[in-house]
Fold this protein.
Amino acid sequence: MREVREHEQALNKRGIRLVQIVDMEGYSYKELMYKPGLDYILQTQKIFDENYPEMLHSVIIINAPRVFSVLFNLVKPLISKETQAKMSVYGPNEDEWKAVIREKFDVTKFPKRWGGSREGSDLFCSQDTEVWPDGPLPLKFFSKGMNKSLRKKF
C-alpha cells in the first residue's frame, strides 16, 4: 500500500487499481485441482477483499479450459459478491478476450500477448518494470512446466 500511495502522490491521482490477468493456457485438470494452489489463491483474494476492497478493478481469466467453469462454480461461493462482479472468464478464443481488453483498458499498459500494444523483450514484457512493478521477471517464470509444443509459441 505504501508503494500505491507513493505512485498516487507522484501522479497526483487517487484510486490506482489493479487489473489481474490470469492466463490459463496450458493448464491441465490436475494443475487446476492442485489444492495448495487453490488455497493460496483463495487466501490471497480474501486478504485483498478484507483489507483493500477498492483496489481491485478487474480479474480477467483467459484461455480457461472447459473444466474450469465447473471448478469455478465450486469456489464461487467463497469469493465475495463484489469481487465476483469484477471477474470475467474467457475460453481460448483470443479474438474475444483481446477485444474486451482493448475496449476496457489502456492497451499501452498491456503486453501484446494479452491484447495490448506494449513492446518488450518477449511476449510478456517480462523485463518491463511498468508491467511488473516488483522488477524484471525471467522468461522461465512464464514457461516453467509448459510442454515443449506450447513453449514454442513463446
